[in-house]
Design a protein that fits this description.
single chain; 263 residues; alpha/beta; 6-stranded mixed sheet; 5-stranded parallel sheet; 9 helices; 28% helix; elongated
Amino acid sequence: MIRHPAFAPGSVWLAGAGPGDPALLTLAALHAIETADVILHDALVPAEILALAPATTRLVPAGKRAGGIHTPQLSINEDLIALARQELRVLRLKGGDPFVFGRGGEECLALAAASIPFRVIPGISAGIGAASAAHMPITHRGVARSVVFATGEAGPAGGEVDFAALGRAADTLVLYMARQNIGRIAAALIAGGRSPTDPLAFLLDATTPRERVVHTTIGAAAAIAATLPPAATLVIVGPVAGIGAMLAPHRPEAEPSIRSAQG
């Protein structure tokens, strides 16, 4: 028998909703969704997961999408604290895992400073779950002995990950929020020693009915990215993306992966 901790009024839980498919929620996250009085959710949490909440639960969008909806982080922190002080059970629901490019750490620090009790429920990170669902083993004996997770967005001060160095440091790169800057990222990877013909894959709306996987190369990535429809996108770079292309025909539950003509 699974015993869940009590979701006490006046507390905040931060939960990961996983890569998209409701079946990939943890039991703890499902319990939190079914118990919360109010849910502040990211834009990446699909409607199918939000629909699991009771009709009486208040749903509050608190998302960030490049070029679209954007809720300032300070405002989210303040809302979490204010709602908890109303003696509500407050759930902060995020795509993937709360602590993997989810700003969960910032929210925990704010809650701790305000003396608000909180709990963190891990989720399946998109960087692992989406890649596995697309049959891309981010580590593979004899092919990929190291993996790095990085963001493709520049920091608040304009700083950016050193992709030239990163490309030399790890066999597999799992890139979040990299689609808009993939041309610059690809150029840096090539400048750092990666071949333009190295495999690269775009995973769009992974693990959902809208999933699409596009296989190409580092050299062709920018041109291919410009043709893709709007979607939550993860980028996988390295030989394991090529393994994913080889295994694509053996994914009966997914739409056929696409190998770009330029790849």
